């Protein structure tokens, strides 16, 4: 149990740093926070690919739960969406939610047919 | 470093629930915390950039997850999936709103008592 927790933590450390680097490198595109969209899509694709190949054990805790779980984020997505709504950008607010959902679900679907 | 603790907290908290509700719980919890943090930083100016990075990007970002959410949604029946999407989006937005409301409440109380 302790070693599982440690593996999740180490993966989380790596995932969060990678997210910071990747999403920081991508600017907002037309009001849409594209950095968050990118990490969520990439992370969903890789997690789906690993899930459908059913990886077990050490790799699962560190990479699937820890790293990929932390590479993607729901809180920043919710915060950025909320800000758009708050600033009266309802069109971009809906676009941001729609884009994140469709692109992440499509990424999972893509992984599903490839794997 | 926030990512290390965020991922472990997600693993432990979500582990208490059924997989799908566990993801919802950590996503909402992380959004409330991020809301408190970001609006404390904006309205009260008491949060240093370093703290914001540790808790916001690291901890809250890793406590919540988009990849697990999409993979779980993908594996659901249509009605269940739609319900899961709505629940996650509405409740995390409400979480950010709650975080902001709490900060505003604290701010008013402070002003009221002449702090």
What is the strand content of chain A? under 5%
**Secondary-structure content class of chain A:** mainly alpha
| SSE pattern of chain B, N- to C-terminal | HHHHH
Number of strands of chain A: 0
Separation of the first and last Cα atoms of chain A: 30 Å
Apparent shape of chain A: globular
Helix content of chain A: over 70%
Largest sheet of chain A: none
Strand content of chain B: under 5%
- Gross geometry of chain B: globular
Assign a percent range to the helix content of chain B: over 70%
Poorly predicted runs of chain A: none
| Number of contiguous helices of chain B | 5
> What is the count of helical runs of chain A?
5
Would you kindly provide a written description of the structure presented here, covering whatever features stand out?
The complex is a heterodimer of chains A (115) and B (115). Chain A has one domain. Chain A is an all-alpha fold. Chain A has 5 helices and no strands. The longest helix of chain A is centred in the last third of the chain and has 25 residues, at 90-114. Chain A has helices at 2-25, 34-52, 58-71, 75-86, 90-114. With 115 residues, chain B is mainly α. In chain B, 85% of the residues lie in helices and 0% in strands. In chain B, α1 (2-15) runs parallel beside α3 (49-63) and α4 packs antiparallel against α5. The longest helix of chain B is centred in the C-terminal third of the chain and has 35 residues, at 78-112. At the A-B interface, α1, α2, α3, α4 and α5 of A face α1, α2, α3, α4 and α5 of B.
């Amino acid at each position: 149990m302790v070693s599982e927790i440690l593996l999740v933590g180490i993966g989380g450390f790596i995932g969060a740093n990678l997210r910071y680097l990747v999403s920081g490198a991508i600017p907002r595109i037309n009001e849409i926070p594209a950095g968050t969209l990118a990490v969520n899509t990439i992370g969903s694709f890789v997690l789906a690919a690993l899930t459908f190949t059913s990886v077990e054990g050490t790799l699962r805790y560190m990479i699937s739960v820890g790293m990929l779980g932390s590479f993607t984020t729901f809180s920043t997505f919710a915060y950025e969406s909320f800000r758009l709504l708050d600033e009266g950008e309802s069109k971009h607010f809906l676009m941001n939610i729609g884009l994140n959902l469709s692109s992440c679900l499509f990424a999972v679907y893509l992984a599903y047919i490839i794997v | 470093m926030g990512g290390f603790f965020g991922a472990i907290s997600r693993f432990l908290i979500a582990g208490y629930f059924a997989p799908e509700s566990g993801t919802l719980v950590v996503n909402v919890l992380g959004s409330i915390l991020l809301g408190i943090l970001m609006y404390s930083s904006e309205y009260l100016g008491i949060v240093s950039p370093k703290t914001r990075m540790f808790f916001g990007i690291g901890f809250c970002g890793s406590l919540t997850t988009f990849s697990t959410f999409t993979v779980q949604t993908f594996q659901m029946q249509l009605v269940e999936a739609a319900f899961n999407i709505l629940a996650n989006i509405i409740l995390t937005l409400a979480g950010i709103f709650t975080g902001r409301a709490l900060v505003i409440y604290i701010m008013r109380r402070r002003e009221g008592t002449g702090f």
